[in-house]
Amino acid sequence: MNKKQLFTIVALVFLVALLAAGVVWRPWNDSVMTVTITISTDEKGPVSLYHAKARFQTGDGKRSPAQADIDIGKWEGELVRLDIRGRVRRWPGIGQTTGFAGCSVQLTDSTGAKPIEFIGWQNDGSSRMHPGTIGSLAFVAPGEADPPFVYGQEGSLWYVFRVPQKAALKAAFRPVMEKDLKGSHEPLVPSVRPPPSVLKESVNADSA
Questions:
Q1: Does residue 21 belong to any structural domain of this protein?
Q2: Residue 11 falls within a domain, yes or no?
Q3: Would you say 131 and 204 are in contact if contact means Cβ atoms under 8 Å apart?
């Protein structure tokens, strides 16, 4: 066997290996979910609590949620704002946005765990009120979960609360693909709703 024949055989083996890898891996179907959680107070700017990237196959319907346990005892007794930002992009994470990071967050303390409900409403301008968004408007991610996974249409959610004793956050995230939403966003219905007078004052304050 001469060198030319040997080179041809090696090239064929390499080509077959590449084709086999493409069938198994298919990088063009990969996406990256990026999630960032920050906490802030009136006195101090945002402090990063969590930042992670998770790579997954877009066509894989069995996506295990990413988990995070975050101690926030440092802010005990303080009024804080929690911000969650998350997007899904084509791999390697710098391409087109193709979805959102759905999240399910629980606040735990010495009394147990309580789901955080991102509360917001879309005011349509009725009742002589200016149209706009009040609060942090959340949408329900497809799929069964209790509490449900939610996402923000602009890729962000926020929540204001006073940190209890021995507090921590238990968070789970999973990708929500735009193609699965089929152009429709299902708003989360808050379990509580302020009286109309509070809504009116909030809208007037936002427009001032």
A1: no
A2: no
A3: no
User: What is the structure's pLDDT at 90?
Assistant: 83
Tokens of 48: 């990063």
Asked if residue 5 is part of any domain, the answer here is no
Query: For residue 160, how many other CB atoms are within 10 A of its CB?
Result: 12
Strand partners, 118: none
Count the neighbouring beta carbons within 10 Å of the beta carbon of residue 32.
19
CA-based torsion, 50, 54, 60, 66: positive or negative: negative
The DSSP 8-state label assigned to residue 187 in this structure reads B
Is 14 part of a structural domain of the chain?
no
Place of tokens 């005892």: 73
In which domain, by residue range, is 88 found? 27-207
pLDDT at 5: 60
65 Rama class: left (phi>0) / alpha (psi -120 to 50) / beta: beta
pLDDT band at 1 (very low <50, low <70, confident <90, very high): low
For 128, 134, 154, 190, 203, the CA distances from 124, given in Å and listed in that order, are 10, 11, 18, 17, 11
User: In this predicted structure, what is the pLDDT of residue 23?
Assistant: 44
Domain count, the chain: 1
Q: How far is CA 71 from CA 28, 122, 164, 174, 177, in A?
A: 37, 32, 12, 21, 30
